[in-house]
Amino acid sequence: xxxxxxxxxxxxxxxxxxxxxxxxxxxxxxxxxxxxxxxxxxxxxxxxxxxxxxxxxxxxxxxxxxxxxxxxxxxxxxxxxxxxxxxxxxxxxxxxxxxxxxxxxxxxxxxxxxxxxxxxxxxxxxxxxxxxxxxxxxxxxxxxxxxxxxxxxxxxxxxxxxxxxxxxxxxxxxxxxxxxxxxxxxxxxxxxxxxxxxxxxxxxxxxxxxxxxxxxxxxxxxxxxxxxxxxxxxxxxxxxxxxxxxxxxxxxxxxxxxxxxxxxxxxxxxxxxxxxxxxxxxxxxxxxxxxxxxxxxxxxxxxxxxxxxxxxxxxxxxxxxxxxxxxxxxxxxxxxxxx
Length: 339
Known about the structure:
Number of domains: 1
Oligomer: single chain
């Protein structure tokens, strides 16, 4: 994975963590909150996931003539990437509920529903959404591969995105259907990125992509309600912009394409050690940060907010790294043969 994309993943998980910490008024800076920003991080996750997975289908030498074996490996890797850690996290949240320290209402029935992608609570709602798109993605990617005319692919996909959005209005639920346009934009971004690399003329427009990267990131940040109100003076609620699925799909796609094909300024920022670290441990951090946050807030209520924040971030970083190093990483190195 390109390092800058790892950095975007790091930015995404930090948006989620900042938002959830602000829910409990645990903010890194006094007078500033990030309420509502977590959903924007989720959109970044969705678009980036679609981008990365679609991109691997463009190397036809890997799967041409043995598509069934390639798809078997694709689904095995997706399962091993998500479900082992997902299952462990569900068990932890269930045990906390059983022991009288609930974070989300997760009983035995909800654990089973979550594992079968039928329902999910709290942060877990994103897992069924993303995993369901994994089944659609090969179809989308193979259609892209079969069509050589970029204009038709781009125009057709954008038309599908707009049409789909009319039939499935934005709703936050553990169902992929309302989010298909967001994922499609991620897959389309992978197609556009490949076309730019093949054409080898993207260097002429590096300044434009650099502006796209900074502009997209700026727009995402400025739609965090606190910053939007500070800049405009207009009253906005925490969820004012949450239903703008397409807007954040386009902004996330713009940030990714701009970072990859820009002049390098945004790329250097995203490749900072901090963002790379959080990008690498993002899945563990996403699933586990609420346990740390609620524990710090509940058991150390008298601790100054700034210290609560530092303890929350530090413990989340430590536990996420341990999970990544000794759980995620060994599983990611499992490489079944194509057969």
